[in-house]
Amino acid sequence: MSIDDGDAFDLIIIGGGAAAFAAATKASDLGKSALMINSGLPIGGTCVNVGCMPTKTLLAIGDELFYGQHSRFDALRNGRKPSFDFATAIREKDDIVATARQSNYINVVDALAGVSFLEGRARFISADKVQVNGHDFSAGKFVIATGSTTKQLAVPGFDSTNCLTNVTALQLEKLPESMIVTGGGPLGLEFAQMFSHFGTRVTVLEAMDRLLPSHEPEISMEIQRALEEEGIRFRTGVTIEGLREEDGRKVVTIRSGRGARRRRSLATETEELAADDVCLLSAGIQANTGDLGLGTVGVAVGPNGFVQVNQDYRTDSPNIFAAGDCVGRMALETVAAKEGSLAAENALTGSHKSINYEHVPSAVFTNPQVASVGLTEEEEMRRFNACACRIIYMDSVPKAAVIKETRGVFKMVIHPENSTILGVHIVSPSAADLIHEATLAVKFGLTVDDIIDTLHVFPTLSEGIKRVAQAFTRDISAMACCVE
Questions:
Q1: Helix (H, G, I), strand (E, B) or coil at 241
Q2: What 8-state DSSP symbol labels residue 277?
Q3: What value does the mean pLDDT of the chain take?
């Protein structure tokens, strides 16, 4: 629908990604008028343009290339060497992104009744009005959904001109022979394995003592073991001190040893690592809120520009709400979409809905994948001063023997008094799919007996969840496959 200077709407949404689209959809469902204003990334935001969709395409290409040459089966031990063209992979990724952007976003916004779309940077000029491209638009309610970007690492030599980011790494035209990835979190591991499978020699630097530091230690150790077997090098417990260019290569100075993160201590030493490219993925994210004029309307922001909201996603300004990565709760596409929908509903109807973040599953799309939902052992100890946990490894799952898959671990955390399932953590092929049974168990308070009593297809990797539940009641190392 056409829009004119001075038009008024029930809801103005600032942003064009998952949270913004969910908010617009909710407004349309409620029969309200809405204006979506987007700038920065193309319509669709991070997920479709530089996040979930392009990275998973390239990860899938890398898997087919690498595992075709490194089979687990003796019958295929000679492997096969398919031809590979990196530039074609990037173009193929771009084609998939363009198609998804058109079908999932452009076509969708055109079909939403009562919703208008405008490209331009919005800025608040009052609590009920924004200015875009020199034009003013007003609304009764607002949802800020501007997303986030990668922070710069505050270290000499690290800046956007000489380091790759998750955005620019997806735009390379030539495959680097070697790469240093700074950060052993989800993004760092995905990019490390992606480029390693393409043939790049990859070293990952992580400041903490282990990879995926927010996950269970057993998860961190198992994914590191799996990726090291594929040739990726890891340096944990290191501090990055600087970056310089020398003879056309990037040279990173690191400090390692006891107390390295304090930057000055005994028993530390510096070291230099060289690579063709450095991919900066460790400094975290910052909200895209710097020039929205939030101070003008009394909207508070915290460190790294994250909008401060209450449980209803309402800011300090009563008619302005915020959702998605810009509020800094969980930087996941699914969370952004749910928050955007709830923020719009709360704004337009006066409801007070929110997410239980302990029921949100997350995944790392390496191979094997990592997936998690609910409490960790550490959090259980903090809350209950007791631990009820079990761990099984992939060799306890019958399907693993069938497909000769040795990489994987399942960990379950249950309530120490009533055996309800509080958390499940997995390393396994297809872990991102397996986690949904665990998510339902956590969300609806199922017990280990509920899982044990549920028939599972045999043989499947999902039996790992049943096996780890059975580990609370019996010795699964001396158990027939058919024991229920």
A1: strand
A2: E
A3: 93
71 vs 481, residue with greater confidence? 71
3-state secondary structure of 124: strand
pLDDT band at 262 (very low <50, low <70, confident <90, very high): very low
Question: Residue 294: which region, alpha, beta or left (left: phi > 0; alpha: psi -120 to 50)?
Answer: alpha
Determine contact, residues 471/419, Cβ cutoff 8 Å. no
Q: Which single residue is written with the structure tokens 């790759």?
A: 164
In whole angstroms, what separates CA 364 from the centre of its chain?
7
Residue-wise pLDDT tens digits, 302-326: 999 999 999 999 999 999 999 999 9
Collapsing DSSP states into helix, strand and coil, what is residue 232? coil
In this structure, what is the dihedral angle of CA atoms 349, 350, 356, 359, given to the nearest 10 degrees?
A: -10
CA dist 101 and 103 (Å) reads 6
Q: What beta strand segments (E) does 429-462 contain? A: none
State whether the Cα torsion 353-357-360-365 is positive or negative: positive
Q: Is 269 left (phi over 0), alpha (psi -120 to 50) or beta?
A: beta
